[in-house]
Design brief:
The chain is an alpha/beta fold. Among the domains are: 179 residues, Rossmann fold (3-Layer(aba) Sandwich), CATH 3.40.50; 102 residues, 2-Layer Sandwich (GMP Synthetase, Chain A, domain 3). The protein is 32% helix and 25% strand. It has 15 helices and 25 strands. The strands form five sheets. Strands 2-1-11-10-12-13-14-15-16 form a nine-stranded mixed sheet, sandwiched between helices. Helix 11 links the parallel strand 13 and strand 14. The longest helix is centred in the N-terminal third of the chain and has 17 residues. It is globular, with a radius of gyration of 23 Å.
Length: 514
């Protein structure tokens, strides 16, 4: 049995070298061609002195070069450091210094962004650039294609073991500095096997992948699943609603699409605007942020099928999923994948709670990471003695075993001694016809400890919403203590690259205006 996803891919490539595996902007790669590029990249890294366990950062947008560098770093014995392409000097400096990256694969803009950090990145020795870099870059650079010519496409190198470190995935860092989650090859392999089994993913599947590869959803679900199953992927540089909708309507080879709620919302808007109706696919998956029941139903109306919502995170990859065969319940993230466990515990006593009671979700299984890079204190705090990982997510399990996410533990609002779960209020406000988007958070209050604050983005095609009308809308549907005591209107919510609302930025902004 294979010890790594890399071994699975290379074995398939040897058995069926002509099998089509990747398309990107007119480029088409067979498994054999891709494997040859991976071997060339790996052998070139070794010739340049990369040692086992050394880190290579990928600060790169979607492209075949990303896929080749990702797998090639593993084949060279290295560890991949994933870097969000939206990060700038403060985040870049922290991540590359913390990881001790020796090399970085990037583009011209990335090289320019890194250049002022030379003095603070003593371990970074050279860059691999996928396009001509500025002359002012203070590191030795090598062109990506030129690097491939240095290596051997037929090289046969030692494969990583399951216990070797594969990836450092840095957490989003919404509180404090981001930490590097250490994902071993066996973690990645166990999770992709569970995902492909649960979703019936086979070599006949073809995925339209518009999600960024620097993130768990696009990389460790989309790309990993493709390589593991033997299927193929239509990789796009980025998501463009009109282009994605056209592909989903016209390309009869596509069987799957993965997205975050923001992308599905844009697809629904584009379908309504253009009159185009996407074909029904075998599988639509949503994750990385909560999918509102309203958007669930909008997608069902537009696509003629129900989204499968799942739940995961950087440290654990995929945790739970709605069933492939069976009821996909709006507002839930389903049940644990095969071979994995999940439970809900009291946030104070850490004792398991019965169905229907809200607490912190904990998970356990072969998919859970090995700990935080150079942070034994944070690692010890994250696990209990029996190996349960504390996700920091609040939720509950209903009587049928479906899990629901109600928010982050640190986002819990305690107002007048009562617990208020932001997502519950958000879903009620999102059902109002004048509301396009909403985020609910708690701000300090001298009487109640915290007050419930709703930040609302109005719908552009409806009358301007009235704050009191929105409060009354909640009051009619929720306990009085849950209604917003303050409603703020904004043109847009701050989001990260995956569309997740950055409530810490909202909180800072609102506190500054009090």
């Amino acid at each position: 049995m294979a010890s790594s996803l890399l071994e699975t891919f290379l074995t398939r490539a040897r058995q069926s070298p002509e099998r089509h595996v990747l398309d990107f902007e007119g480029q088409r790669f067979s498994a054999g061609q891709l494997a040859g590029h991976v071997a060339a990249f790996a052998s070139a890294l070794q010739r340049r002195g990369l040692k086992p366990g050394e880190r290579v950062a990928l600060f790169l947008e979607n492209s075949p070069a990303f896929v080749i560098a990702y797998l090639g770093t593993w084949y060279a014995g290295g560890v991949v450091v994933l870097v969000n392409t939206q990060y700038r000097q403060v985040e870049l400096g922290h991540i590359l210094a913390d990881a001790g990256a020796r090399a970085c694969v990037t583009g011209a803009a990335g090289a320019a962004e890194l250049s002022p950090l030379k003095a603070s990145l003593p371990t970074l020795e050279w860059l691999v650039t996928v396009e001509p870099s500025p002359a002012s870059v203070p590191w030795p650079t090598v062109d990506f294609d030129a690097l491939l010519t240095e290596g051997e496409a037929t090289a046969s190198l030692p494969l990583p073991t399951g216990e070797q470190l594969a990836v450092l995935g840095y957490t989003s860092g919404t509180t404090g500095r981001s930490k590097g989650a250490m994902l071993l090859h066996r973690n990645l392999l166990a999770n992709v096997r569970a995902v492909t089994e649960a979703w019936r993913w086979t070599e006949k599947d073809r995925l339209l992948l518009t999600l960024p590869l620097f993130h768990t959803h696009g990389l460790m679900v989309g790309l990993h699943g493709t390589l593991s199953s033997g299927g193929s992927v239509d990789l796009r540089r980025r998501f463009v609603a009109s282009e994605a909708l056209a592909a989903l309507q016209e390309d009869t080879s596509l069987t799957m699409f993965f997205g975050v709620p923001t992308l599905y919302g844009r697809l629904v808007e584009e379908a309504r605007r253009s009159g185009l109706r996407p074909r029904a696919l075998r599988l639509l998956v949503s994750g990385s942020a909560p999918l509102s029941p309203q958007l669930f139903h909008n997608v069902e109306e537009t696509f003629g099928q129900r989204i499968l919502e799942r739940y995961g995170m950087t440290e654990t990859l995929m945790n739970t999923t709605n069933p492939y065969e069976g009821e996909r319940r709006p507002g839930t993230v389903g049940m644990p994948y095969p071979g994995q466990e999940a439970r809900v515990v009291d946030v104070r006593t850490r004792q398991p709670l019965p169905a229907g009671e809200t607490g912190e979700i904990e998970v356990r299984g072969p998919h859970v990471f090995a700990g935080y890079w150079q942070r034994p204190d944070a690692t010890a705090e994250a696990f209990d003695p029996e190996g349960w990982f504390r996700t920091g997510d609040l939720g509950l399990r209903d009587g049928d075993g479906y899990f629901q996410i109600t928010g982050r533990a640190r986002e819990l609002i305690i107002s007048g001694g009562f617990n208020v779960y932001p997502r519950e209020v958000e879903e009620v406000l999102a059902s109002h016809p004048t509301v396009a988007e909403v985020a609910v958070l708690g701000l300090p209050d001298p009487d109640f400890g915290e007050q419930v604050v709703a930040v609302v983005v109005p719908r552009p095609d409806s009358p301007s919403p009235d704050a009191q009308a929105l409060v009354d809308h909640c009051k009619d549907r929720l306990a009085s203590f849950k209604k917003p005591r303050r409603v703020v209107f904004l043109d847009a919510l701050p989001r990260n690259a995956l569309g997740k609302v950055q409530k810490h930025l909202l909180r800072e902004r609102l506190q500054a205006t009090v």
